[in-house]
Structures are given as C-alpha cells and as structure tokens.
Design goal:
Radius of gyration: 19 Å
CATH architecture of the largest domain: 3-Layer(aba) Sandwich
Number of domains: 2
Largest sheet: 8 strands, parallel
CATH topology of the largest domain: Rossmann fold
Structural class: alpha/beta
Helix content: 25-40%
Strand content: 25-35%
Number of strands: 14
Strand order of the largest sheet: 9-8-7-10-11-14-12-13
Shape: globular
Distance between the termini: 17 Å
CATH superfamily of the largest domain: NAD(P)-binding Rossmann-like Domain
Length: 306
C-alpha cells in the first residue's frame, strides 16, 4: 500500500530539533546521487528533482510552476508539488507526500542545521530579513534550536509585512536595515533580491549569516565585502557553488574561489570544524537540493509510522 501523506496527517508530530538530527545523520553516509530535470512552455514549467541515497531511499519531488494562476478569475497557487518516496532495496513506491510540506520543513531545517553547526551557542538576537512563509518557518525553527534567544527582529522592504509577521510571531519589526543587522547574533535572509543588499560593514564580529533567498544564477543577497570577511560554508557543494548567483557571481568575477568555501554538510557532519572562535563571522548558503528533500521525506515517513 502506498501512503498518501498531507500536512494535517503528520505536521503536529514534527520537530525542528528532530529534523535537524535526521539531516545530520543523513549526511554521515555517502553523498547522494542527485539530478534536476526542467521543462518549460512559455512562462510555465515542470521541475523534477531526484535523489538516491544508497541504504536510505529514493525520492523525486515534482513541481509545476504556473505564474499566471494568480491572475485567474478564481486565483490558485502558482506552484503545486508532490514528493514520491521509493524503497531503496526493492524500488517499491512507499508514499506520496505533500510537496509543500516537504519543502517547508526542508528549507528551514537546512538553515537551522547550518546555524546549529556554525552559530555561537549563546546567540541572543535573531534578525530575520524578509517576511514571507520561509521567514515564518525560520523563526519557529531557530527558536526551537536556540531556546536562549531573547529577541527576534523582522525587517522587510515593505514595513507593513514586517509588522504583520512580527505581530504573528511575537517579534519586533524594524525599519532600519543596518540597525537590524548590526545588533544581531544571527541573521537569516530569505528574499527575492537580485542584487546585494546585506553589506559586510553592517555585520558585527561573531555573527552567523544564513542566506536562503538566492536560488537563481542572477540572484544575490550578500555583498562582496561580507563574503571576504566571513568563513563560508554551504549545505552541498554540488548545488550551492556554481548554479546560484550568491557564490557563482563572485567566483566568476575572481572575488573568491571554490576553495574559499570551507566545508559543506557532508564534511561538517563528519568531523570538519565549523566555527573556530567567538569573533569570526560564519556565512552559510542554503542551496537546497533533492537529497535534502529526500532526507526530510524519510523523517516525515518515520513520524507517520512511529
């Protein structure tokens, strides 16, 4: 029997801390085989992201992106997705999981694990840049992993959106971006920016910077000076270095090189040291990847069966 898993079936049983533990364990085995397939017809697209982790499982997240859905007489979401999980031993299909559920927990869990490995354990102030759905999940995940947080700040280009998210999440909305960044111990940014706007001069010693937003070759959030003053880490070298503008652009321009990226999760979860001192700035690029979707789906499946 193939299980059909929706958010209402399992989400109340999920934990950011437990997910991070599952992701950490998932990276202690050999690297996943991953691949993306993209089809486009005009503005519409079909994207399939596949991963196979030997000894763990096989998974494919398939998403359709139809931007004009928002303009329909009865508007519907522009993105629809499902995740199909297969058994690694027999190839038997095990579950079809709501793709939105997998993406939500994968995206914030990816960054939360990065922060757990790289941020100062005594971090007190979190600044969230952006006020969308990812930002909401980031606040939840970081609060669970860093229970000592005393203040969460929200900045967004549209201040009213920052105010709404801050009200919903018992946080503080801040208008001034340099102020919001300069007093933070952790900065997590999830915007749609195509140009750098997080400046190195605004980031104090000891801060951990988590960059989520850039996912296309033309997108960036951090400026060159921040990259140059930080120790840089990624979730996976295969997905974060060459295909995303955050690092690909400065590498192509000679600002940094591939060796500037110190480690990814496969290295960090197998003993490579992350943060060395209280004063250094750590920068983590959340690039995503089908292997992280698969690890998250396996965790969700475990929660359904437990």
């Amino acid at each position: 029997m193939v299980l059909s898993i929706n958010a209402e079936d399992v989400e109340s049983n999920l934990s950011w801390l437990a997910l991070c533990s599952a992701l950490r364990e998932g990276h202690k085995v050999s690297r996943a085989d991953i691949d993306d397939i993209l089809f486009k017809h005009g503005d519409n697209a079909l994207l399939s992201r596949a991963a196979w982790i030997k000894g763990k499982g096989i998974g494919i997240k398939t998403a359709t992106i139809f931007p004009n859905n928002a303009k329909l007489a009865e508007a519907i979401p522009s993105v629809h997705s499902i995740f199909t999980l297969f058994d690694d031993d027999t190839g038997k299909p095990l579950a079809i999981i709501d793709g939105k559920l997998v993406t939500k927990w994968k995206t914030a869990g990816d960054s939360a694990l990065g922060a757990k490995l790289l941020a100062r354990p005594d971090s007190k102030v979190l600044t969230v840049v952006g006020a969308g759905a990812v930002a909401s999940s980031i606040i939840d995940s970081y609060r669970e992993l860093f229970p000592q947080l005393e203040k969460v700040q929200v900045w967004n280009r549209t201040f009213a959106k920052a105010q709404k998210l801050a009200k919903d999440k018992d946080a503080v909305a801040i208008k001034d971006l340099p102020e919001a960044l300069s007093n933070a111990d952790i900065v997590s940014s999830s915007t749609m920016s195509t140009s750098s706007f997080i400046m190195g001069d605004w980031i104090k010693e000891g801060t951990h910077v988590d960059l989520i937003g850039a996912y296309r070759p033309d997108m960036r959030e951090a400026d060159d000076s921040l990259l140059l003053k930080s120790r840089i880490f990624v979730d996976a070298r295969e997905t974060a270095i060459h295909d995303i503008g955050e690092l690909a652009i400065p590498i192509n321009e000679g600002v940094i090189n591939e060796d500037t990226v110190i480690a990814d999760f496969y290295q960090l979860c197998n003993g490579v040291k992350g943060r060395r001192t209280e004063k250094e700035i750590t920068l983590f690029k959340n690039g995503g990847g089908a292997h992280l979707d698969l690890m998250t789906a396996l965790y969700i499946m475990d929660m359904v069966e437990s």
